[in-house]
């Protein structure tokens, strides 16, 4: 599938060494963009770039710690040196490894180092990449900056306090990009992502948990990385040229319904059976 809607464009995807970032990079490349695969995991980033090149695309990998300003500046210079322009920045990187998830808990049990990591990578990292890429876009008179946010940044949950606060703050970034650089041709938008695990992650989740989650989605199935990547490609392209300063929710309706909906459905189906 190549639409050519991103032909001649250069896109940076952070955290593209795996998961949703890698899928976004593949889809942007399939639409014609040249890709900078940015990740702290050098080997993973190189694998994704090689895969894109092998399928006829154009890609480079840049080992980068997005939480370090020095590292981000070096990454932007490397991308400019290779491709000479930057049209799309997808701020996708987040710290989500097992240790981080275990330590970024409810407020009273929060390991404050995990809080600091979540804020440093998810929030500060996105701010740093935006800070160093937007001047390039302003010079070009055009650009699209995208932020990966999460339902956990909009609704309270039992754990992941630092992650949730970092994602809540990120919802402000598209509005700031739009207000500050919109007249110079730079758009900013966020995607509030619902559960869209990589295919192999489904098998590691207990069936009961998947059923609870599926029941709370207003789509037949849970999300896939490809469905998120398609939204990112829309925001990256001119198809969304009149969309800026907003957060697009891509979560299968998970956050669209009343909290009691699933319990009510169960209640009414039981009432029907009892002839109530
Ligand atoms: N997968 C989902 O269901 C889901 C749901 C809601 C939101 N999201 C958001 O989507 C994005 C991708 O999620 P994912 O599930 O693919 O995560 P993932 O853990 O699979 O990928 C994150 C990537 O970021 C990289 N990374 C971590 N720290 C970094 C740093 N300091 N510098 C550069 N790269 C770094 C990792 O190496 C990894 O490749 C995240 O922003 C996440 O919050 C995902």
From TrEMBL:
InterPro entries (alphabetical): NAD(P)-bd_dom_sf, Sc_DH/Rdtase_CS, SDR_fam
Highest taxon of source: Bacteria
Native source organism of the sequence: Pseudomonas abyssi
PROSITE patterns: ADH_SHORT (PS00061)
SUPFAM superfamilies noted in UniProt: NAD(P)-binding Rossmann-fold domains (SSF51735)
Entries under Gene3D superfamilies matching the protein: NAD(P)-binding Rossmann-like Domain
Coiled-coil region: none
Pfam family name, one: adh_short_C2
Family according to the record: Belongs to the short-chain dehydrogenases/reductases (SDR) family.
Name this polypeptide is given: Short-chain dehydrogenase
